[in-house]
Write a structure and sequence with these properties.
- By secondary structure, the protein is mostly beta strands.
- Helix content is about 5%, strand content about 25%.
- The longest helix has 4 residues.
């Protein structure tokens, strides 16, 4: 299982990088992950994976059978750490 994980340090404009663990090694080459702009879900409780804390989730898209997975890129011109929303969704939490 650990062979499929990346331990990432992602700059989210918070002063220091946020540690995130993702299961993307099977889908994205390390060269394609380095210095890549990604969308990160931050309003999750920290989770321990293989004894290491993960403090977010890299948002991805996939095909129907999940054999191809690709991290979403933020909109062009979005600043590091900028909150993004999707048309039709207010971005407010669901009660």
């Amino acid at each position: 299982e650990a062979d499929g994980l990346y331990l990432e340090q992602i700059d989210l404009g918070e002063g220091k990088p946020r540690q995130v663990i993702s299961g993307l090694r099977k889908f994205v080459e390390i060269e394609d992950m380095k210095n890549r702009d990604v969308v990160v879900i931050l309003n999750l409780k920290p989770a321990k994976m293989r004894g290491i804390m993960s403090n977010g989730m890299v948002l991805c898209a996939s095909n129907d059978d999940h054999t191809k997975v690709d991290p979403l890129r933020p909109p062009e011109g979005a600043a590091i750490g900028e909150k993004i929303t999707f048309e039709g969704f207010s971005g407010e939490p669901i009660e």
